[in-house]
Design goal:
The protein is built from 11 helices and 17 strands. It is α+β, with helices and mostly antiparallel strands and 422 residues long. Helix 9 packs across helix 10.
Length: 422
């Protein structure tokens, strides 16, 4: 019977991992085990390996992508996620999943260096994964109920019809607030939040540590149920493996390669036919290129004529480039700089009202300002958002992570002009 080794990759700073062997029906064939990757490879006799990566190092999103597939669709992903990224897209690997009914397409982004390190560690242990998923991607979806998974200081949230996401923050109240599961008591201007029905999956150890905190927050939920995971989260996640639509990170340059040498004899007739087709295709392309050159010459003559009529006083050297430069100059004279200065002015006033809050990085693109800040607390971030809101600038907290002496957060600022522009 076919078996699969399902293992969780170690969190940053850890060396031990945990794994589980499951059969073709998705049931556990062994108990959950812990140890090094080398030990996991030694005890497993299965050639099929699936790895679960820490979700804190993977960005899951669901942008609306243009129609298409393959390379064309993959090229559009970095630009669709540009506003959500703080790292250079050249340093990231993007993976595309299934297009969902709502029009969005599930995608995942991870640092190339991080993904390469995972694959190197697995390879050195003798493991060749067929897929690598973010661990929270296997969280089950429950219609009408918000699914929560608390593990140490990481809270994962999956709402019906949406992709899961994770917040790494403590205490529990702050994590639930940042995740939007409960109302923010500091945001007095927000509309009253409708309580959610939720089910919490948690190990016995984590429940003993956080039971009191959840008991104090019970009134914030429409209904609240606790499901203990006596054998840890891995067997629970394994139940969704057979039906998962999780995004496999092994795409593009990291796609699993296959040795086709042994199959050459079976495919050589097809390859010969493909070669003949290629020759015909190249000949047809050569004819099209010749036709395109003739059409280009005609278009160049028409462009020169239009240039002479539009800019008679300017000497014609390269009409295409000169006309493009003039159009770019007209485009830059729009309202973009005014929106930038208006947002920057509002930000300077808000920073004065939020002491000990530092801006680590800042970028401005399409009337939207993205910045990374370090604040002493979530209350300071909330105060910064309120001050910006009074000046007409919408502030959205994209993510937050506790650091020494405070909170590190990724904020997106958008002025009213910017929102109209979009």
């Amino acid at each position: 019977m076919s078996q699969t080794l399902l293992l969780r990759l170690p969190e940053p700073g850890q060396e031990e991992t945990e794994w589980l062997v499951i059969d073709a029906a998705g049931d556990s064939a062994t108990t959950r085990q812990r140890g090094s990757l080398t030990l996991a490879a030694a005890v497993s006799r299965s050639g099929k390996v699936i790895a679960l990566a820490p979700a804190t190092q993977v960005l899951l999103a669901e942008p609306e992508l243009p129609p298409g597939s393959g390379v064309k669709l993959a090229r559009a992903v970095p630009f669709a996620l540009e506003e959500n990224l703080t790292e250079d897209i050249d340093h990231l690997s993007f993976a595309v999943g299934r297009r969902r009914d709502g029009g969005g397409t599930a995608v995942a982004a991870v640092s190339r260096g991080v993904l390469q390190n995972w694959l190197t560690s697995l390879s050195e242990a003798g493991l060749q994964p067929m897929a690598v998923y973010a661990d929270i991607s296997l969280m089950p979806e429950n219609p009408g109920v918000t699914v929560l998974w608390l593990e140490n200081d990481r809270l994962a949230v999956r709402r019906p019809g949406n992709l899961p996401f994770a917040v790494e923050l403590s205490p529990v109240r702050d994590a639930l607030t940042v995740a939007g599961v409960i109302a923010d008591p500091l945001d007095t201007a927000a509309q009253p939040k409708i309580p959610e029905s939720a089910v919490l999956y948690i190990t016995r150890e984590d429940w003993e540590r956080s039971e009191e905190a959840f008991s104090e927050l019970a009134h914030e939920f429409e209904s609240f149920t606790v499901q203990l995971l006596p054998d840890g989260p891995l067997p629970w996640l394994a139940r969704s493996l057979a039906s998962t639509d999780a995004v496999n990170l092994l795409q593009g340059e990291f796609a699993r390669t296959t040795d086709y040498g042994a199959s050459w004899h079976r495919w050589r007739t097809t390859a010969a036919l493909a070669a003949c087709l290629l020759v015909v295709h190249v000949a047809a392309q050569a004819l099209q290129i010749r036709q395109a050159k003739r059409e280009t010459a005609v278009l160049d003559g028409q462009i020169a004529s239009v240039f002479s009529q539009a800019m008679p006083a300017e000497p014609m050297r390269d009409p295409r480039r000169q006309m493009q430069s003039r159009l770019d100059l007209i485009h830059r004279s729009g309202g973009g700089p005014e929106n930038f200065l208006r947002t920057l002015l509002a930000l300077s006033g808000a920073m004065a009202a939020a002491p000990k809050t530092d801006i680590d990085s800042l970028s401005y693109h399409e009337d939207s300002m993205d910045m990374k800040v370090t604040a002493p607390s979530l209350a300071a971030l909330s105060q910064l958002s309120q001050v910006m809101g009074k000046q007409g600038v919408t502030t959205a907290i994209q993510s937050s992570t506790p650091v020494a002496g405070g909170v590190e957060a990724h904020l997106q600022l958008r002025s009213p002009a910017g929102k109209q522009h979009r």
